[in-house]
């Protein structure tokens, strides 16, 4: 059940879909904030974060850590599928992830996400490609390790 902007229950087929689309467009395409945070750029550099090639071991440890049985993104590649051929997957991802790192540009389809409305509690979930999650987790681990080192100084 979906309500219109003025609180009226939408009953016609297709109206709920149009309202969700309208809602998402409003939320995701909002104007930039008028006031921005002021950052002291003299303290931005963190030399403790490792930069350079991402090793096969790091990719493998992320793959092993990832939960199986989770919903895949729009490309239907599951965690189980990636784990089934771990060594082959790691070799392919190693080349791909490091190419992305050198070019500093992520593949466009990795940025696409599938938003699914759950009828039980009327919230949405966002599914993204598992391979993009692998890259994200590798990078997050690097940032956390570097930040942790910096904070312990």
Q: Which structural traits does this protein have?
A:
2 strands; 153 residues; mainly alpha; two-stranded antiparallel sheet
Q: Care to describe what's here?
A:
This protein has 153 residues and is mainly alpha-helical. The protein has helices at residues 15-28, 56-65, 79-84, 86-103, 130-151, and strands at 114-118, 123-127. Strand 1 and strand 2 form a beta hairpin. The longest helix has 22 residues, at 130-151. The protein starts with 14 loop residues before the first helix and ends with a helix. The mean pLDDT is 82.
Instruction: Name the shape in a single word.
Output: extended
The value of Rg in angstroms is 20 Å
For the termini, the CA-CA separation is 54 Å
Q: What structural category arises from helix and sheet content?
A: mainly alpha
Secondary structure tally, helices: 5
Largest sheet: 2 strands, antiparallel
Helix proportion range: 40-55%
Arithmetic mean of pLDDT: 82
Which segments are poorly predicted (pLDDT under 50) over 5 or more consecutive residues?
none
Query: What portion of residues belong to β-strands?
Result: 5-15%
What's the SSE pattern?
A: HHHHEEH
The tally of beta strands, per DSSP, is 2
Question: Major sheet: order of its strands?
Answer: 1-2
């Amino acid at each position: 059940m979906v309500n219109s902007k003025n609180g009226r229950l939408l009953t016609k087929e297709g109206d709920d879909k149009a309202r969700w689309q309208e809602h998402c467009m409003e939320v995701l395409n909002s104007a930039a904030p008028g006031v921005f945070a002021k950052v002291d750029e003299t303290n931005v550099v963190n030399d403790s974060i490792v930069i350079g090639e991402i090793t096969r071991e790091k990719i493998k440890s992320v793959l092993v850590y990832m939960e199986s049985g989770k919903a895949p993104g729009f490309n239907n590649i599951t965690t189980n599928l990636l784990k089934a051929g771990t060594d082959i997957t790691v070799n392919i991802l190693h080349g791909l992830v490091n190419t992305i790192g050198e070019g500093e540009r992520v593949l466009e389809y990795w940025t696409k996400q599938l938003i699914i409305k759950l009828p039980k509690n009327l919230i949405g979930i966002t599914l993204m490609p598992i391979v993009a999650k692998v890259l994200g987790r590798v990078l997050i681990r690097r940032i956390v390790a570097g930040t942790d080192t910096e904070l312990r100084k």
